[in-house]
Amino acid sequence: MNTRNAARLRRGVSPDVYATITEAEHAVLEGLVSILELRASDRQQREMREDYLSHIDFPVAARVLEVGCGPGPVARALASWPGVGDVVGLDPSPVFLEKGRELAHHLPNLTFVEGDGRALPFEDGSFDVVVFHTTLCHVPGVEEALGEAFRVLRPGGVMSAFDGDYATATCACGDYDPLQTCVEACLDALVHDRWLVRRLPALVNAAGFDLLRFRSYSYVEAPSSEGYMLALVDRGADLLVSSGRLAEGGADGLKAEARRRSDAGEFFGHIAYAGLLGREPG
User: Which run of H or of E encompasses 210?
Assistant: First the structure.
């Protein structure tokens, strides 16, 4: 067992659910679908996504792979992107893929494939572009996933990665803020490596890519009754109860406090993100 998972278990929480997604209960997966679709529809999240995708030089009729597509919000955006021909969304979860196919029924150039990003079921040089959207932070063995991306790209192909610098995630408005405990519980359960972004340029270079671009983004949630960060507080509060770190009923108080702040214009939520472009030589 690696040190990150051992530390989680000492705190009474399970390893990143995304890292073991095929073992997750159906109800958990349905909840994750809701969170992923909520995040994708958020205006700031959409603006960040459109900005980093705009820096990819898609060749005409590009064949694009999104690794770890979940229910497919980014794959759907790619399928409608100028210059893109066919898009393949890959994920290990049959439940995510079923939902992805349902939501993308109107997009004939988008298909979904079940598989592991560390052992891609594609031939060498099959794609022009490979995209990892908030995927690599969940992958034990990031080097394998980057190596597989390198393998399936044609010479000169582009790999784009966008991920959260989750060590910066906060809802705190002061020291010992109880809402920050919710955020920490959520990160324990949903992120395998919250520090990954800080090592990503070196990992990309080690995989053989030429680093083309690396820039930061900032997500700040203004007061909102239906925001992404509020959803993280809710899930974190429930996780505190289910792991035995908070008494039954305690989650309701934390959720109520988050919404009180939101209604009063006092809620604050922030995560830094980073977008990276790498090119395969040739």
Answer: strand 210-221
Distance of alpha carbon 100 from alpha carbon 82, whole angstroms: 21
Tally of domains within the chain: 1
Pairing label, strands 127-133, 62-67: parallel
**Measured distance CA(161)–CA(237) in Å, rounded:** 30
Three-state DSSP class for residue 174: coil
Cβ-based neighbours of 270, under 8 Å, separated by 6 or more: 168, 169, 170, 218, 219, 220, 221, 229
Confidence (pLDDT) at 17: 86
Cα–Cα nearest to 167, from 181, 179, 184, 185: 184
pLDDT beneath 70, residues of the chain: 1-15, 223-226
For residue 179, being part of any structural domain is answered with: no
- The structure tokens listed for 264 are 């009063």
Whether 143 is covered by a domain: the verdict is yes
Structural domain of residue 144, as residue ranges? 3-165+193-218+273-279
Pair 117, 96: CB distance under 8 Å:
no
Query: Dihedral angle at the C-alpha atoms of 179, 185, 189, 194, nearest 10 degrees?
Result: 80
* Dihedral angle sign, alpha carbons of residues 179, 185, 190, 194: positive
